[in-house]
Design goal:
Elements: E1 3-8, H1 20-23, H2 28-42, E2 45-50, H3 54-66, E3 70-74, H4 83-94, E4 99-103, E5 125-128, H5 133-143
Parallel strand pairs: 1-2, 1-3, 3-4, 4-5
The structure holds 1,3,4-trihydroxy-5-OXO-cyclohexanecarboxylic acid.
Length: 145
């Protein structure tokens, strides 16, 4: 069975409260419930985690490699500047696993600093701009093969 870690970076624990005009009114717990439902329907295993801590996110990517799990990663603001996260993401994809970068909003339609992703070039693919559905689409892609 496909096993996926769904990893979320800084400030995503504040979903529902943080800029609802950009990120919507649903919370991280709502995302957890949605992911559980989608994973069940797709017959895959998915575990949702969130941290504000860069080193914890790096360690979770190491764990994905060691436990042979694919990754759905919303790196949040780390997307735009964390070379440590990029290097860890590269270990996932160069290790023969898949990593889908996801965003709730479409960073390319927002401020210029969000137009750069240091993760995208080492990801298997990127899905952005579909709200929580970005995660559903990522899980579907991973379940498809
Ligand atoms: C985000 C987009 C990032 O630019 C931002 O820093 C986030 C969330 C998204 O899901 O749309 O925290 O990754």
């Amino acid at each position: 069975m496909t096993a996926v870690l769904v990893l979320n970076g800084p400030n995503l624990g504040r979903l529902g409260v943080r800029e609802p005009d950009v990120y919507g009114a649903l919370s991280l717990d709502d995302l957890r419930s949605a992911v559980a439902g989608w994973a069940g329907a797709l017959a895959i295993e998915a575990e949702v985690r969130q941290t504000d801590d860069e080193s914890e996110l790096v360690h979770w990517l190491h764990e994905a490699v060691d436990s042979r799990r694919d990754v759905v990663l919303n790196p949040a603001a780390f997307t735009h500047y964390s070379y440590a996260l990029r290097d860890a993401a590269a270990m996932v994809t160069k290790g023969g696993l898949r990593l889908v970068e996801v965003h709730i909003s479409n960073p390319y339609a927002r401020e210029e600093f969000r137009h750069v992703s240091v993760i995208g070039a080492v990801a298997t693919g990127t899905i952005a701009g579909f709200g929580f559905d970005s995660y559903r689409l990522a899980l579907s892609a991973l379940a498809g093969s």
